Amino acid sequence: MTSNTPTHIDIGGIALPREELAQVLPDIERFEQHLPDALAVDRDMQASKGAVPDYVREWPQARIDAVVLTLKEVGSLREQTSEQMKTSGAGHSQH
Q1: What is the SS3 string spanning 28-61?
Q2: 48: Cβ–Cβ under 8 A, 6 or more apart, which residues?
Q3: Burial 73-90 (b: 16+ CB within 10 A, else e)
Q4: pTM score of the predicted model
Q5: Are the beta carbons of 1 and 62 closer than 8 angstroms?
Q6: Does the pLDDT value for residue 85 go beyond 90?
């Protein structure tokens, strides 16, 4: 890892250790390269109730495929992180 390689990667509100992501993702370089596009598409789709943003249609198919794969990975990572937080007791209040 070089000195400019981040130690954590923000997947949209959750920063996860890059080292751990490199162990679970098949291609960390592709993930990092397409993460900004994936987060933008995710944000814009949420804002438009699921409609694919028009600008995506202008992208080459290879870029679309990579962004879709990255979006799936982001969703899976968010779900796993949420589950880990639930099982570790984070977010649970006992009255």
Answers
A1: HHHHHHHHHHHHHHHHHHHHCCCCCCHHHHHCCH
A2: none
A3: bbeebbeeeeeeeeeeee
A4: 0.83
A5: no
A6: no
Q: Which residue shows structure tokens 């959750």?
A: 14
CA distance 21 to 28: 7
Amino acid at 29: E
Element (H, E) at 16: strand 15-17
Residue with tokens 């649970």: 92
Name the amino acid, one letter, at 47: A
What's the Rg (C-alpha) of the chain? 15
Query: Six-digit token pair at 16?
Result: 């996860």
CB 8 within 8 A of CB 18: yes
Tens digits of residue pLDDT in 32-68 = 999 999 999 999 999 999 999 999 999 999 999 999 9
